[in-house]
Design brief:
- This protein is of the alpha+beta class and 105 residues long.
- It has a domain of 55 residues.
- It is built from 4 helices and 2 strands, in the order ββαααα.
- Strand 1 and strand 2 form a beta hairpin.
């Protein structure tokens, strides 16, 4: 499929056929980046099962994908592993649980 473009050159008009180019949208690029990050984070958890930061980060990706139960599970594991220094895992866990309650009502 191509788009028809009319080019005005002085007093003459000339028709040119241009191929239609589809560029990835920002949403598509973000989804692809999230899929790659999710895969890498799952591998990081597999390689180092006691790493809480990978769980925290993966929980954010799952929350963005509307997988709140999955995000809660990962945050529970993160908190049980001691959490991430400087981050309030208990508060994030409470926020996710509240989000799950409001989404099921």
């Amino acid at each position: 499929m191509s788009a028809l473009v009319v080019v005005v050159l002085g007093k003459r008009c000339r028709r040119m056929e241009w191929p239609r180019i589809r560029l990835p949208t920002v949403d598509g690029e973000q989804r692809l980046a999230q899929l790659r990050a999710e895969k890498m984070l799952r591998k990081a958890i597999e390689l180092d099962p006691k790493e809480p930061l990978a769980r925290w980060t993966l929980s954010i990706i799952l929350e963005n994908k509307k997988d709140i139960p999955g995000a809660i599970k990962l945050m529970e594991e993160c908190v049980n592993l001691g959490g991430v220094p400087g981050m309030d895992g208990e508060q994030r866990l409470a926020d996710l649980r509240a989000k799950l309650e409001t989404s099921t009502q």
